[in-house]
Design a protein that fits this description.
This protein is mainly α and about 150 residues long. About 75% of the residues lie in helices and about 0% in strands. Helix 2 runs antiparallel to helix 4.
């Protein structure tokens, strides 16, 4: 599993290295803030969807209310998927720029990490988050379509 990148970049120009390093630090911090915001957004959306599910069960006998809550849950699930995808796009853009800046620095840590993790065979966090929100949407859809059967006498 040989990486295409080296840890150390020997072809650097040291003229503006301090300025580049400071800009690099700021950009890495902003990428970290995006990741933290994503985690908070996902946790908030999961809390909303979980709360709606509790509300739907409280109104389980009221078909109209249960259906309304279910439709709202499906909409929130779809918005959640779009939110996760948007954060993924933002992070990808940020890390592409970080990789470009690393070409001007002596060490290519994020580039090397990216090369090595891209070879791992696993579901990424984005796919897992999307799967979770799809499961919420399916659950709400099933709840909306639930029809009470007539009691057996």
């Amino acid at each position: 599993m040989k990486s295409t990148r080296n840890l150390i970049n020997y072809n650097i120009n040291t003229d503006n290295l301090n300025i580049i390093l400071e800009q690099y630090k700021l950009f890495v911090e902003s990428a970290q803030r995006i990741s933290e915001n994503r985690i908070q957004a996902v946790n908030f959306l999961i809390a909303i969807l979980s709360g709606l599910l509790v509300g739907a069960t409280a109104f389980f006998d009221n078909s109209l209310m249960r259906t309304a809550i279910s439709i709202f849950g499906i909409i929130i699930s779809l918005v959640s998927i779009m939110t996760v995808c948007r954060y993924r796009q933002l992070n990808r853009i940020k890390f592409k720029i970080i990789h470009e800046i690393e070409n001007l620095l002596p060490i290519n840590l994020f580039c090397l990490e990216s090369d090595r993790t891209s070879k791992l065979k696993s579901l990424g966090f984005t796919k897992l988050e999307i799967l979770l929100f799809i499961l919420f949407a399916v659950g709400y859809l099933l709840l909306a379509l639930y029809k009470e059967s007539a009691p057996n006498l």
